[in-house]
Write a structure and sequence with these properties.
The protein is of the alpha/beta class. The protein is built from twelve helices and five strands. The mean pLDDT is 84.
Length: 296
Amino acid sequence: MSLYLPPEALIANEANEKARPAEKPAERAARVALMAESIVLNGQELPVLIVEVGGEGEGTTYEYVDGGCRVEAIALLNEKSTPAQLVWCSLVDPSEDLFRKAVTANLHRTQNSLLDMAQIVQETFERNDWKGRGAADKVARYLGIGNSRVSEYQKIHRAPEGLRKRIESGEVASLDAALKLLSVSEEKQEKVTARAAEIAAEDQEIALRDTRDKAAKAGKKKAAAADSKLEDVKGAAPDASTPATPSAPATPAPPAPPAKIKAKHVEQAKREEGVAKGPRAKSEIVQFWEQISPAA
């Protein structure tokens, strides 16, 4: 059954709030802004799933199980334009598993963070009181993810606070990198993590330097081509005595984003700390050649 309701008449259901438990306010605001742009261009393409909670007639309360971003986006649009837009909603049976409905809708439509997934997996165990042998298989079927992913997200949930903060900030960029850090003993984990962060920064610096060098070379080629074209037009090279036209001040380059710790950075840090052995990374090879090359 479809209903059209003002956004202020809808409140979040407990299940919806647990579908993205680790989302930061700034991340939420960015998603809502993007959703508002999409609604302006394409309209509301999917209904908001709601349940009827208590009351009758005008006293009825509605809670959204899935689609909170759409609700907030329409509320945002209504602040800036008239007439006010209503939210397209679809009623669902309150006796259904609302947590599963909210979580799986998010899993299939958006990219959840590592900490979101870790908390969702833990919440699934606890809500269903699944314990012991076979519990992980039940969670995997419930969420529609692989069995191995369940155990991996459990490890993320139990990660030390220092590593959790690095995951939350986005510094640890992948599940693979986080798991490799968790494979290190606790007494060496922070040291390996700190070194991996340094290696990530070194790799980023090398990549930025390569990008700048390529841009500089491309700029020289464009300048040479322009000079050649000007000579063809004038029939001679430009007069060196002619004062150059002052150029506009250069726009400062934006600061580089923080380096992301990837699995390869962790592997290199583990080797350096004597935790693991394996092939060397690009930054190690570059550093080696810089050390043995004679100074220019």
